[in-house]
User: Which sequence fits this backbone?
């Protein structure tokens, strides 16, 4: 494989953290002046989760996130990122937990909630948004399903990425207030990040 593919997982992880940070930001504040931002947060959070899981799988080997590959007849050189983008097809959201387990041994503890959130995302994207509290669903998914995975896998959290969109989300306690109001469980280490000045 082309040496450029070695950086794929690092870039995916960083991008996935930013996407989740945006979803958290969108549901922490009111939708006034931002119609559909709460519903779109479901789409962003599911997309961010997909990228983050693919990043971890790609750390083992970038080709593990693909279900179909370019053919040797499509290129004369080494398999490149450009060829993967053009001719490859990556795994779907729902397929990732099994490949994550097969490639790393990691089992998603709340697999049913992970899959349900993916179904909610599909409903929104392909049909319409049902009547539901998008803010609560997105924050529950981010902090009760995805953050524990990120903590188990990398010993990190993506919570700081929400402040890239507006630093007051953490410094002024807006996110913490939302999580407490909605009775969302937060990992103790992530809680500490939100409490530090």
Assistant:
């Amino acid at each position: 494989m082309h040496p450029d593919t070695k950086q794929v997982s690092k870039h995916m992880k960083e991008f996935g953290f930013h996407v989740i940070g945006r979803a958290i930001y969108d549901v922490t504040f009111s939708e006034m002046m931002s119609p559909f931002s709460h519903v779109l947060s479901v789409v962003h959070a599911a997309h961010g989760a997909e990228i983050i899981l693919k990043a971890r799988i790609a750390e083992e080997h970038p080709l593990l996130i693909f279900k179909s590959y370019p053919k040797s007849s499509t290129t004369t050189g080494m398999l490149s990122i450009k060829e993967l983008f053009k001719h490859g097809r990556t795994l779907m959201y729902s397929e990732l937990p099994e490949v994550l387990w097969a490639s790393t041994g990691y089992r998603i503890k709340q697999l049913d909630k992970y899959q349900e959130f993916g179904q909610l995302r599909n409903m929104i994207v392909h049909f319409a948004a049902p009547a539901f509290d998008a803010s609560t669903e997105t924050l529950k998914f981010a902090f009760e399903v995805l953050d524990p995975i990120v903590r188990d896998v990398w010993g990190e959290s993506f919570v700081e990425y929400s402040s890239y969109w507006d630093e007051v989300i953490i410094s002024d306690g807006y996110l913490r207030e939302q999580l407490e109001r909605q009775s969302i469980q937060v990992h103790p280490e992530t809680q500490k990040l939100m409490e530090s000045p």
About this structure: Residues 37-60 form the longest helix (24 residues). The first strand starts at residue 66 and ends at 68. Residues 3-195 form one domain. The mean pLDDT is 91.
